[in-house]
Recover the amino acids of this structure.
């Protein structure tokens, strides 16, 4: 039986992650004293923080891998409710002063802060995940073809649905999440035109909790399920846990995002309802940037991962997904089409 190709980063269990968390509120002279050439990398988390079983935890896995291999003493910092760009600037400045390198903002919300702070610390490498707007000699834009993995999720959903109705739940109404929706809808339509996709965004802004409110995700999924959806795909960070919970309660399929959510310990009681996950290798992007700094050849500029590079893909951990020949064959065909260019996936 042919199986869908898996990306190597899949299935990092959150329970295995042990990160040193610093409030980063006090100044440090370590970087100026010369005692510590490099403490390691620093992550500044996006909304949802550590434990989202998704985006932030994938970044944490990259940090942990770098710590293990390079003997680093890295740090990660949680976001604060209602924080401003000035708060983010102060956080990044403190991390750079303390001697961390690279310093990575996990999420597009860090773009203004990374741009400002990188200009003040030209010898420090900065990274930002999910933003491609910063053009600086010491900044790496770590971005992905999310629409490609989402297309595959749409193919799987179209093959799995029995009601001919599926759902998409986006955390925040932004261009980034539109990419997930666009790829998903196109994958569904290209596979089975009779399937209806119901879409809903939880909030207009991240500050309203679209990426950090499982209750909002659960409510949205309940509404879509009531309207007939029997497969629901969430691109909503921590809020996606609520979507998965609702799917499990109604015994329908959920499709996870960013990490292989079938293998996340915190979601274990719902895993039989997680058909697959549309993944992107945030772990690998974080690790590779840290390694490039360690090797003395820091990555900079736009670094975009795709299906062809193995940076995005679809998980096949669920035995029900593995054994479904119709889904496997359809996804395999779609993978080949995207890679050879015969399928052009839309981003909006």
């Amino acid at each position: 039986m042919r199986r869908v190709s898996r990306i190597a980063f899949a299935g990092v269990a959150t329970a295995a992650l042990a990160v040193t968390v610093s409030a980063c509120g006090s100044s440090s002279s370590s970087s100026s004293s010369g005692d510590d050439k490099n403490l390691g990398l620093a992550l500044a988390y996006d909304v949802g923080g550590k434990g989202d079983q998704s985006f932030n935890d994938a970044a944490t896995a990259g940090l942990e891998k770098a710590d293990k291999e390079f003997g680093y003493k890295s740090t990660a910092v949680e976001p604060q409710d209602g924080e401003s760009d000035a708060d983010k600037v102060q956080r990044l400045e403190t991390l750079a002063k303390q001697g961390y390198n690279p310093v990575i903002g996990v999420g597009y919300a860090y773009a203004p802060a990374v741009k400002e702070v990188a200009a003040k610390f030209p010898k420090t490498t900065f990274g930002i995940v999910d933003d491609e707007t910063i053009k600086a000699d010491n900044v790496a834009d770590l971005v992905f073809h999310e629409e490609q993995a989402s297309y595959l999720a749409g193919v799987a959903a179209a093959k799995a649905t029995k009601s001919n109705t599926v759902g998409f739940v986006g955390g925040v109404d932004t261009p980034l999440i539109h990419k997930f929706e666009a790829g998903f809808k196109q994958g569904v339509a290209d596979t089975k035109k009779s399937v209806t996709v119901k879409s809903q965004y939880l909030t207009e802004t991240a500050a309203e909790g679209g990426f950090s409110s499982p209750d909002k995700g659960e409510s949205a999924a309940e509404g879509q399920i009531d309207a007939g959806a029997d497969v629901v795909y969430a691109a909503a960070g921590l809020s996606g846990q609520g979507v998965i919970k609702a799917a499990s309660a109604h015994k329908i399929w959920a499709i996870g995002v960013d990490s292989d959510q079938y293998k996340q310990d915190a979601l274990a009681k719902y895993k039989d309802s997680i058909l697959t996950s549309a993944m992107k290798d945030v772990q690998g992007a974080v690790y590779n940037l840290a390694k490039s700094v360690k090797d003395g050849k820091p990555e900079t500029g736009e670094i975009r991962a795709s299906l062809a590079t193995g940076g995005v893909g679809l998980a096949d951990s669920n035995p029900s997904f593995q054994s479904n020949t119709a889904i496997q064959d359809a996804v395999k065909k779609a993978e080949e089409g995207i890679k050879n260019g015969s399928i052009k996936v839309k981003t909006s």
Q: What stands out?
A: The first strand starts at residue 40 and ends at 44. The domain at 14-145+282-305 is CATH 3.40.50.2300 (Rossmann fold). The chain has eleven helices and twelve strands.
